[in-house]
TrEMBL record:
The chain crosses the membrane at residues 70-88, 100-121, 142-169, 224-244, 253-274, 302-323, 335-356, 458-483, 495-513, 533-550, 571-594, 614-639. It catalyses: L-glutamine(in) + Na(+)(in) = L-glutamine(out) + Na(+)(out); L-phenylalanine(in) + Na(+)(in) = L-phenylalanine(out) + Na(+)(out); L-pipecolate(in) + Na(+)(in) = L-pipecolate(out) + Na(+)(out); L-serine(in) + Na(+)(in) = L-serine(out) + Na(+)(out). One of its GO terms (molecular function) is metal ion binding. It is a multi-pass membrane protein. One of its GO terms (biological process) is sodium ion transport. It comes from Pan troglodytes. Residues 696-706 have a biased composition (Polar residues). The keyword Membrane applies. NCBIfam families: Na_transp. This is Transporter. Keywords: Amino-acid transport, Glycoprotein, Ion transport, Membrane, Metal-binding, Neurotransmitter transport, Phosphoprotein, Sodium, Sodium transport, Symport, Transmembrane, Transmembrane helix, Transport. It is found in: Membrane. Belongs to the sodium:neurotransmitter symporter (SNF) (TC 2.A.22) family. SLC6A15 subfamily. Residues 692-712 are annotated as: Disordered.
Length: 712
């Protein structure tokens, strides 16, 4: 940044309303002053720059206490519940160990380059998502507003999951665990097991009936579930208290919320390895199915997982990086956080399938015992001849291998009559093939496995405390992606905005703690984020590469990092990533069109799930979620392209940043030259490598308003 450009700064400070003509008359003087500033010795120049930046911008903007705190914040935001309950499911479903290859390829092609791009623009411009894209081009400022809307939609239902985890955490301090066995129902004559539980399982019954008290369809609200309402309130209070001072308050909590899940995962992994059957689960998990890897669906789901695992498009990445110093090596951060995220997913997958392997082994042993007793009954009744049973096999204490031998013999001998015997093969692979994800994994399958653990309450407390911390880490980044851009743009007090944001979210979130609330969570999860975020990130890529200019952006990075980034990123950003994102968007739209919009409803009478289509009003809500999330992009573009709002009305198009306060600027200026002068102050001017021409339009620049003018 030029030091002697303070002449221009003083003019702007003294009289912002000075005419464009008068300001332009000082152009040559400013250029001469800038050229003179290049003669300063490098060391002194850097020192002065730090002082100047610190005096005007740095002191007013919070900063991370350390690099570790920042990395943990980014890791906490990117590593969320999806790493624990989504990645293992996709890995099992899409070829086991073979799924890791397309995931790694897409991480290199889509994940790291786009993550690096968001880190770079946030760190360089030092604003939230709204300010960043206004800086790139005011006409594309709607990208930032769209990110905020999507963040808010996600925060609404994501915190409900934290509330569920808090409920299970509160119920874990008892022995035996409340979901260990089916409840008994007493009437005047006798006591019997609850029919709904008997037809399903203890953990399934507890989840749907005790925790959610779920209704049979989305149209039956059933009123509020007061237990979950209290838990949701507690979750929002925790988020509000942690975020009320921004990174100054959440930064202290990050050390625990980001590191504790790793402690729990490692403890679970060690404990699971000591349990019988865990190796079977891991072997099943990583047995590669190479033929599945070639299917297009596998690559689409891997790309989607990479996209959401890193939190691209939410604005949290940009918000967190905006609190960095401008010379921070964000390229190293991008690679480090991306691979930490990947290895966390692999670690979680090992834990999940080690535990599920143990659970499958327990269920398999019960299956063998029950079927062995059935075979002994058939032997006594004469339905099966004793002669076909090998003499060395004792059905009272039969092993899995011996049972499978007897099963195969009976199947061959009683070929026609075998189906009527109703014997099960009791193979552990069949149990492991029952793929579960999301709430089905966390609140049903995993909780059932933990009931068989020694000291099960301790492990239950650890597991749900881990889920709470994973959720909070992601919520911190999500709320930061909402609050930071609004504070930067409108200069409101962060404390007041955070409280209002959380209070409003709790009130809206009451729809998720009705008896039908789980169905609304599914709806928001399916429609509020997927398509809008893909569109947002595509527009981010286009804005940087084709509106701002990829060559100019590479020069920015060279100046900021102190070295030129690899040309690999140039080609990824300009050619490969846009094409991959566009392909992913088309594939997602096609998949959404082919899949009937609906949800899995719990039918009490059948004690099982049943797929139901959304009613007409539900389809309207689904479409509205997508439309409202994307609507800011075309609205802001049209308003600023055609100047539909009067400049004197205090509209968003005439807001700019200056020394911690908001100034109004005329937006009907002719040409980029004048907008650059009115829109920038020295502390926010581009760095010296490309700053020589800050008063002149860049040659070859697009006709769209590409100047980094800082207007909102």
């Amino acid at each position: 940044m030029p030091k002697n450009s303070k002449v221009v700064k003083r003019e702007l400070d003294d009289d912002v309303t000075e005419s464009v003509k008068d300001l332009l008359s000082n152009e040559d003087a400013a250029d001469d002053a800038f050229k003179t500033s290049e003669l300063i010795v490098d060391g002194q120049e850097e020192k002065d720059t730090d002082v100047e930046e610190g005096s005007e911008v740095e002191d007013e903007r919070p900063a991370w206490n350390s690099k570790l705190q920042y990395i943990l914040a980014q890791v906490g935001f990117s590593v969320g519940l999806g790493n624990v309950w989504r990645f293992p499911y996709l890995c099992q479903k899409n070829g086991g160990g073979a799924y890791l290859l397309p995931y790694l390829i897409l991480l290199m092609v889509i994940g790291i380059p786009l993550f690096f791009l968001e880190l770079s623009v946030g760190q360089r411009i030092r604003r939230g998502s709204i300010g960043v894209w206004n800086y790139i081009s005011p006409k594309l400022g709607g990208i930032g507003f769209a990110s905020c809307v999507v963040c808010y939609f996600v925060a609404l239902y994501y915190n409900v999951i934290i509330g569920w985890s808090l409920f299970y955490l509160s119920q874990s301090f008892q022995q035996p665990l409340p979901w260990d066995q089916c409840p008994l129902v007493k009437n005047a004559s006798h006591t019997f097991v609850e029919p709904e539980c008997e037809q399903s399982s203890a953990t399934t019954y507890y989840w749907y009936r005790e925790a959610l008290n779920i209704s049979s369809s989305i149209s039956e609200s059933g009123g509020l579930n007061w237990k979950m309402t209290i838990c949701l309130l507690a979750a929002w209070v925790m988020v509000c208290l942690a975020m009320i001072k921004g990174i100054q308050s959440s930064g202290k909590i990050i050390y625990f919320s980001s590191l504790f899940p790793y402690v729990v995962l490692i403890c679970f992994l060690i404990r699971a390895f000591l349990l019988n059957g865990s190796i079977d689960g891991i072997r099943h998990m990583f047995t590669p199915k190479l033929e599945i890897m070639l299917e297009p669906k596998v690559w689409r789901e891997a790309a989607t997982q990479v996209f959401f695992a890193l939190g691209l498009g939410f604005g949290g990445v940009i918000a967190f990086s905006s609190y960095n110093k401008r010379d921070n090596n964000c390229h190293f951060d991008a690679v480090l956080v991306s691979f930490i995220n990947f290895f966390t997913s692999v670690l979680a997958t090992l834990v999940v399938f080690a535990v599920l392997g143990f659970k499958a082994n327990v269920i398999n042993e019960k299956c063998i015992t029950q079927n062995s007793e059935t075979i002994m009954k058939f032997l006594k009744m004469g339905n099966i001849s004793q002669d076909i049973i090998p003499h060395h096999i004792n059905l009272s204490t039969v092993t899995a291998e011996d049972y499978h031998l007897v099963y195969d013999i009976i199947q061959k001998v009683k070929e026609e009559e075998f189906p009527a015997l109703h014997l099960n093969s009791c193979k552990i692979e069949e149990e492991l093939n029952k793929a579960v994800q999301g709430t089905g994994l966390a609140f049903i399958a995993f909780t059932e496995a933990m009931t068989h653990f020694p000291a099960s309450p301790f492990w239950s407390v650890m597991f749900f405390l881990m889920l709470v911390n994973l959720g909070l880490g992601s919520m911190f980044g999500t709320i930061e992606g909402i609050v930071t851009p609004i504070v930067d743009t409108f200069k409101v007090r962060k404390e007041i905005l955070t409280v209002i944001c959380c209070l409003l979210a709790f009130c809206i979130g009451l729809i998720f703690v009705q008896r039908s609330g789980n169905y609304f969570v599914t709806m928001f999860d399916d429609y509020s984020a997927t398509l809008p975020l893909l569109i947002v990130v595509i527009l981010e890529n286009i804005a940087v590469c084709f509106v701002y200019g990829i060559d100019k952006f590479m020069e920015d990075l060279k100046d900021m990092l102190g070295f030129a980034p690899s040309r690999y990123y140039y080609y990824m950003w300009k050619y490969i990533s846009p094409l991959m994102l566009l392909s992913l968007l088309i594939a997602s739209v096609v998949n959404m069109g082919l899949s009937p919009p609906g949800y899995n409803a719990w039918i009490e009478d059948k004690a099982s799930e049943e797929f139901l289509s959304y009613p007409t009003w539900g389809l309207v809500v689904c479409v509205s979620l997508v439309v409202f999330a994307i609507l800011p992009v075309p609205v802001v573009f049209i308003v600023r392209r055609f100047n539909l709002i009067d400049d004197s009305s205090g509209n968003l198009a005439s807001v700019t940043y200056k020394r911690g306060r908001v100034l109004k600027e005329p937006v009907n200026l002719e040409g980029d030259d004048t907008s650059l002068i009115h829109g920038k102050i020295p502390s926010e001017m581009p760095s010296p490598n490309f700053g020589k021409n800050i008063y002149r339009k860049q040659s070859g620049s697009p006709t769209l308003d590409t100047a980094p003018n800082g207007r909102c």
